[in-house]
Amino acid sequence: MKVCEIFASIQGESTYSGLPCVFVRLTGCNLRCSYCDTRYAYDEAREMTGDEIVTEVISYSLRLVEITGGEPLLQNEVLTLISRLNDQGLSVLIETNGSINIADVDRRATIIMDVKTPGSSMSETLYAANFENLKRSDELKFVITSRADYEWAKDVVTKFVLHEKCTVHFSPAYSLIQPSDLSAWILQDKLSVRLNLQLHKYIYHPDRRGV
pTM for this one? Predict the structure, then answer.
C-alpha cells in the first residue's frame, strides 16, 4: 500500500477528540478541496505491506487507530487492513470524503465521513447513497466555510434526517469562519449537531505535520 505517514497524536476531531490515537495516513486523493491542509498526501508515499503497517501501529501500544488520507478508500487493500486492525482488538476509525461507496467497509470500524460543502468546491462529488449504509456508531462532519455553507449543510441534514442516523458534526473551517459565529447559528436554529473544533490546531501549530 502507499503510505504517506504513520504517527501518534491526540485525536483532534469527532467524538473521539482528545484521545491518544495512531494515525495511518494513506497517499492519494480523488478530490481537491479548496481548504485542504494535507496536500502533501496527494503524492508523498512509501510502499508498505499490510504486515508492516499492522506491526508499526501495534508498536505504539494505543487502542485507537485512524486510517485517513488523502482518501484511504481509494486503495482496495485498505479493506483488508481495516479488518486486520479490528482483529487485533483495536478501535478503528476511517476518515473518508464521502465520494466513495462505504458498503464494503468492515462494520466493526467507525466511519467518519466528511460531507463536502460548496465552500470546498467539491460538493458535487457526494455519493448520497452512503447515507443509507451509515451505522449509529458512524459520524458525519461538515466543514463550514461561510453562512452559505451552513445553510447548505443544514438542508442536507434535514433532507436525509441525518441527525437520527448518527452523530453529525459542524466544523468551522480553520481561519475562515469564527467558531462563535457557527455556534450562534446552531443555537439559533436549535440543530441537533455538534460543534466540532480541530483540537490539534489549537494544541500545535496549525501547519505542523505529524500531529
Answer: 0.94
